[in-house]
Amino acid sequence: MLTGKSIILGITGGIAAYKGAALCSKLVQAGADVRVIMTDSAAKFITPLTLQTLSRHPVYTDTFDERDAAVVSHIDLADHADLIVIAPATANVIGKMANGLADDMLSTTLLAATCPILVAPAMNVHMYEHPAVVHNLELLASRGVMYVEPGTGQLACGYVAKGRLAEPEDIVAAVQAFFRRSKRLEGKRVLVTAGGTMERLDPVRYLTNDSSGKMGFAIAEAARDMGAQVTLIAGRTAAAVPAGVRLISVESAEQMLNAALHEYDNTDIVVKSAAVADYRPAAVQQRKIKKTGEKLVLELERTTDILAALGERKQQQFLVGFAAETEQIEHYAMDKLRRKHCDLLVANDVSAEGAGFNGDTNIMQVYSAEGLLESLPLMTKREAANRLMTIIADRLPLRRESAGL
Ligand code: CTP
Q: Binning pLDDT at 50, 70 and 90, where does residue 46 land?
């Protein structure tokens, strides 16, 4: 399963460091080439010799212990890794990652690495629930760091609570799932639109909406992590732009339409999660509108429906639309799916707690021409994006069949 995969295993200083040995052994048995980096604290719990014997490579503990004059160890290691796994990950290493600190071999390598990172936290429950740690974990998640959640059970400190390192078998399963997922959309070109459009009234004012772009960004990240080449057309957003995707920034619905049409022919999958203005000011004033009377009437005109325009031109493309609704979800979702020639329509009730604009979670229903396909309960937007992209990858062959490809 893991043959040919180069994995850095980072072991940090918690009592669960001993489980790092079992994990290392299982990864090697599964065929991976495992390079182990241990922190000084980890070496107090378990000896580097154990990990050297299991990984069949010298263990790295010191940034300045340069064994090969031809390379700089932490850069060389970082450049050649397909994945970094940190297990157990202490609150300290999580804090260092979140803040970009690099004061030892592991944190320096982490800063130099561009490959995906899987973190398996293990710590006392109060540490795990500390706002600083929660914030750091969330920050890292927004940068695409993956997690294997700690388990609940007897902790070394005596508490029975959440914080116990996930079992080595579960971490290996997460590693295998990652590599399976990372190939699912290899060679596919994915176009994602995200955020709200801005429709100018004058040089200092515009009409927009509450969309944060977080759902679209999460979808772009999920597609990227499945091996796709991702182009992201983003309007006004409030989230950090994902790394490793091509970004086209736009303001208005018209600019988004033009950018989408320009990309469309060379695209396999389109996910249209942007909140596009349905109306824009009929005229954009070149100078700031001065206040005059007691009332001001704005004249608005319809924008082009981008999704419908793409639906009309559909060839090989797998087209996914979104629908933000507050009532009769299924009725409107199915209507939009048919009208705009979508392969899937993702609907959410934006009035429900935990769903819709701005938050970090969503509740979504995925519809196909046959009706409700999957109902995704409350989960993080990133997890929802993974699930959606998996449904798309599963159904892609059907689309290609029906397009005669
Ligand atoms: N959409 C679009 N261009 C527009 C309006 C909407 O591409 N001018 C897309 C959105 O990106 C989304 C889908 O159409 O994928 C549905 O958007 P939504 O605002 O829910 O629906 P509308 O078609 O605008 O219908 P209504 O406003 O009546 O609910």
A: very high
pLDDT at 1 over 90: no
Give the residues across from 318 on adjacent strands: 269
Going along the chain from its start, the domains and CATH numbers come out as: 6-181 (3.40.50.1950), 189-402 (3.40.50.10300)
- Which one is catalytic: 24, 115, 157, 342? 157
- Sheet of 189-194: strand order equals 246-249, 229-234, 189-194, 269-272, 318-325, 344-349, 361-368, 371-380
Residue among 82, 94, 152 nearest 119 (CA): 94
Q: Indicate if 157 belongs to the active site.
A: yes
What's the rounded Cα separation, in Å, for the pair 253 and 303? Answer: 7
Nearest CA to ligand 1 atom 12: 322
As for ligand 1, residues whose beta carbon falls within 6 Å of it are: 253, 272, 274, 276, 278, 303, 305-307, 321-324, 336
Across 12-97, where does the E strand assignment appear? Answer: 33-38, 83-89
Give percent above pLDDT 70 in the chain: 100
Measured CA to CA, the distance from residue 225 to residue 227 in angstroms comes to 5
Mean pLDDT value of segment 265-291: 96
Is 186 exposed, middle or buried, given 0-12, 13-18 or 19+ CB atoms closer than 10 A?
A: exposed
Paired with 269 in beta bridges are 190, 318
CA 143 / ligand 1 centre spacing (Å): 28
- Average pLDDT, stretch 131-154? 90
pLDDT at 312: 97
